[in-house]
Amino acid sequence: MARVILLNKPFNVLSQFTDKGTEGSPRETLSTYVQVPGVYPAGRLDRDSEGLLVLTDDGKLQARISSPKFKQPKTYLVQVEGSPTDAQLAQLRKGVELKDGMTRPAEARLIPEPELWPRTPPVRFRKSVPDAWIELKITEGRNRQVRRMTAHVGLPCLRLVRWAVGTWTLDGIPPGEWREI
């Protein structure tokens, strides 16, 4: 039976177990949080993003979760700079043209500020610029896709939290903690 671990990856942690970039690197990796042999991330979550990272020891399951051909939905809570307009949300819903091609249509909606843990370090705000939260659901996972999509429509990303992968969510999992399902 496949092992599946849901980890709430903290901000500033690499989505890998070792940092092969530099010997003695101070960058934090998954090995700080998960000491389960044989499990690997199904997909990636950028170092400056937080939230749900699914780990498994089943290669087929890993492929079903991370490969865009399976269209596994991933839900993000995105704090953006600015006040999203209906037109900007409509652009995200339609799909946007990025340098690596058109994105698939996304589900996008304005949401109230979610009840999340404080981020360390905190997000830097500008008093003269409003911010808002968007829930964005995508079915692909290009490099820094959510950040590039929101920036493309004029809403730079301040904080990015992956809340769900398919039906699995972060509900009840504090940052740096994990649950096996």
Automatic annotation (TrEMBL):
Note the PROSITE patterns from the entry.
PSI_RSU (PS01149)
Spell out the InterPro entries in the cross-references.
Answer: PsdUridine_s_RsuA/RluB/E/F_cat (IPR042092), PsdUridine_synth_cat_dom_sf (IPR020103), PsdUridine_synth_RsuA/RluA (IPR006145), PsdUridine_synth_RsuA/RluB/E/F (IPR000748), PsdUridine_synth_RsuA/RluB_CS (IPR018496), RsuA_PseudoU_synthase (IPR050343), TruA/RsuA/RluB/E/F_N (IPR020094)
Keywords recorded for this protein, A-Z: Isomerase
Q: What is its EC number?
A: 5.4.99.-
Q: Which Gene3D superfamilies match?
A: Alpha-L RNA-binding motif (3.30.70.1560), Pseudouridine synthase I, catalytic domain, N-terminal subdomain (3.30.70.580)
Instruction: Name the Pfam families on file.
Output: PseudoU_synth_2
Matching entries from NCBIfam families are given as: pseudouridine synthase
Protein name from the UniProt record: Pseudouridine synthase
